[in-house]
Amino acid sequence: MQHFSRPFVAALVVLLSAFALLSSLVAQEETTSSVPAVQFVVDVFNTGELDAAADYIAPDFVFHELNNPDIELEGIDGFAQWTMGVRHLFSDFHVAIDDEVADGDRVAISWTLTGTQTGEFQGFPASGNEVTLEGMSMIRLEDDKIVDWWHSVDGLALLTQIGAFPLSEAEE
Fold first, then answer.
1. For 7-21, 28-42, 56-70, 144-158, which range has the lowest pLDDT when averaged over its residues?
2. Using one digit for the tens of pLDDT, what is the confidence trace for 85-102?
């Protein structure tokens, strides 16, 4: 498993926090990735077109779900399972890159996902609720292909928005 130095992670957290604050203060147009492999993943999520996956996803690709370490998908088939699973969960799924920092073989992105929950999620039936989630991903590239994708999203926000944890009247 690849480890990042504490100064690198601390600087990245500060930088991404600053970008998130600026994004909330200034209306911005949707950002595209400067890294073709990362833009491919965004396009796959938004269109479902997996045809060029082998051009951008390494055969030894590993998806790491930081909120649930039991989820680890491998290879191009794992990538397809991940993307199609999300697209099944949200019928009108759309992901947009909010910010990106690239350095050497690493890319960090913050992103926003929007969609309507039309598929079952962890035992919770489709709610038909619209969802907006923000998350961050750290990507490692090798020969311009994605080898590792570490992913973190606010799972509690998702569960709340699909109605698994309804808000009290005072919180609404």
1. 7-21
2. 888 888 888 989 999 999
Q: Which two tokens stand for residue 131?
A: 């969802």
Number of residues that this document lists for the chain: 172
CA-wise closest residue to 166 among 129, 120, 132, 112: 129
Distance CA 67, CA 111 (A): 16
**Among 98, 90, 87, 97, which residue's Cα sits nearest to residue 44?**
87
* 84 in Cβ contact with 44 (< 8 Å): no
- CA 92-94-96 angle, 5° bins: 170
Tell me what pLDDT residue 164 has. Answer: 87
How many of the other CB atoms lie within 10 Å of CB of 94? 13
Closest to 113 in 3D by CA, of 72, 154, 84:
154
The mean predicted confidence, pLDDT, of the chain is: 79
Cβ-Cβ contacts under 8 Å for 6 (sequence gap 6 or more): none
Local structure of 151: helix, strand or coil: strand
Is pLDDT at 16 greater than 80 in this prediction? Answer: no
Domains and CATH numbers, the chain: 29-161 (3.10.450.50)
